[in-house]
Amino acid sequence: MKSTDYFNLAAFIAIVETGSFRKAAARLEMQPSTLSHAMRTLENRLGVSLLHRTTRHVSPTEAGQALYAQVAPAFADIAMAVEHINPFRQHPAGTVRLSVPRMAAAHVLAPRFREFAERYPDVTLEISANNGFVDIVKEGFDAGVRLGEHIQKDMVAVRITADFCDAVVGSPEYFQRFGIPQTPHDLTAHRCIGWRQSSAGKPYRWEFAKDGQKINVAVNGPLMLDDFELMQQAALDGVGLAYSEVTQCSQYFESGQLIRVLADWCTPYPGFFLYYPSRRTSAALRALVDTLRV
After folding, report:
1. Does the N terminus or the C terminus of the chain have fewer Cβ atoms within 10 A?
2. Per 3-state DSSP, what percentage of the chain is helix, strand, and coil (rounded to 5)?
3. pTM of this prediction?
4. What is the predicted pLDDT for the residue at 117?
């Protein structure tokens, strides 16, 4: 096999996994035209078409699927073999690309930025803060952060926060004007601040559970947001009730700026986890895992 074939096969793997020449080029840090040339060269050498190409998507042909099934694990083994020399390095190095919810970026990662940067000066963290669900493999990320209940079973997951518990909160002024809901069903008569994920079509239904009974409430109100801090600020301003997380509101409970209601209907659930495909464990990523794990 020619040395150029290794590059062309690596380009092919990236294109299949991302479904896009542009995204594959970003993952490999090169121009899309370079990947196009690599694919033409590989297909001409093998004498078969490996990819279906449309204006919006790229997918493997039957021959491409067969080739990917054989070469992707082999390249993963090569990458792992290269990573095994990292213990001989003095420091981990490289770039770790992360897809992270905005709340996790602000409250979990940001407080550790300085510690990590000083401890691992040769590692660069590249963070995309977005509340939508992201396919980290397809989008070329090394790892992601999600709530534990939303992580796929084939991922390695490392806990980076304690359990969470949701809270329905409002300002004293709001409750003076509109009263206090006694059950989740009462929320349909209140002004609630809605939340819609950027990647989801429907607004989030507020979830409650008590004594084995589960209730999901479709709330209504004057605002629909996709950012928890904006929702919290709106609640502080008396706009309406917000569905938040207890630890994010604790300072406002202590100051009396926010009041929690329906606490007996809110149960704990797994917090944030750092997750990644098992075949992508670089020394730089392991350094981040060691820094964040609880």
Report:
1. N
2. 45, 25, 30
3. 0.70
4. 95
